[in-house]
Amino acid sequence: xxxxxxxxxxHLKPHPDPDTLVFGKTFTDHMFLMDYHTGQGxxxxxxxxxxPLPFELSCMVFHYxxxxxxxxxAYRTPDGKVQLxxxxxxxxxxxxxxxxxxxxxxxxxxxxQAVKAVVEADRAWVPNKVGTxxxxxxxxxxxxxxxxxHASHSYLFAVICCPVGAYYPEGIDPVKIYVExxxxxxxxxxxxxxxCGGNYAASIRAGERxxxxxxxxxxxxxxxxRKYIEEVGSMNVMFKIGGTVVTPxxxxxxxxxxxxxxxxELIRSWGIPVEERRISVQELFDAxxxxxxEEAWGTGTAAVVSPIGLLAWEDRKVEVSGGGIGALTQKLYxxxxxxxxxxxxxxxxxxxxxx
Length: 355
Ligand code: COI
What we know:
Elements: E1 5-6, E2 30-37, E3 41-49, H1 60-64, E4 67-69, E5 72-76, E6 82-85, H2 87-100, H3 108-121, E7 133-142, E8 154-164, E9 175-180, H4 197-212, E10 217-221, E11 229-232, E12 236-241, E13 244-247, H5 258-269, E14 274-276, H6 281-290, E15 293-300, E16 304-313, E17 316-319, H7 327-340, E18 351-354
Helix pairs in contact: 2-3
The structure holds 2-OXO-4-methylpentanoic acid.
């Protein structure tokens, strides 16, 4: 159990208009910080006013990207309460990212306590308009100064929060996706299964190219054969083909998404067959041509469930669900967000209230 010192901000900032929230632009009044030093372990947990921090330019994170993060949300329920969604899953994933990136782990209970402490301090920032939430960004950075390539001996764990609306400007409207056949996001043995900044840095060029051509995001292929589907943009991806939901297996280069896991649990509970396996882009486009590709969608904390309305690969373009939202995609979105926003019962025990 952490002994968290709380210092409240003297001046509270005005809240942004909930009708025009832009993802990740406005931050709340407080942040959580905790330091690590070899020999001392994690120490000095505190909630303090949100403010810039000074770092030397030799700080290791700026050079070798020893850094990991999580993405989660707090939701306002109709009775005005605030709740988290599966926070222990984020704690577990962060621990697994820590192991791969040589960062000292944070005990799961401490991680959840830290998140709860900052959300409690900024409870008033959790918006209540339909489709909005408080996005929570826990992260750890290496803070040793120096240019040698080694594991740092000091780290900072921070949690910052921002009120958000939809991640894509399209909202729940279908997005257009382009199959990326040049850049790859990750390979097995690398860091693809972790949530480290480097994975996202490697994805930016393809994302920019796709946006330049009028697409929202790219469909990533595996780095070895360049033919098996891995993820879409910064989300996991699922397809409904001939009545079965098919999604890339967690092969080491795919992020084990918590929204992915929740969607698969929901789909299985509805008696719909699920296959977690390799799926090639050829199989996908063949299914589209044969008329068996019924639906496609991305899943992620930020984007929730995002329908895919158009897929483009080389010179081929296929419309999915007639360019609209498929019935299963809509049901997943409604059920998941219903549980998250507390407008539907939570038979799975996925939500954790902030008292
Ligand atoms: C999330 O869905 O929470 C993510 O971390 C994706 C992101 C990089 C915005």
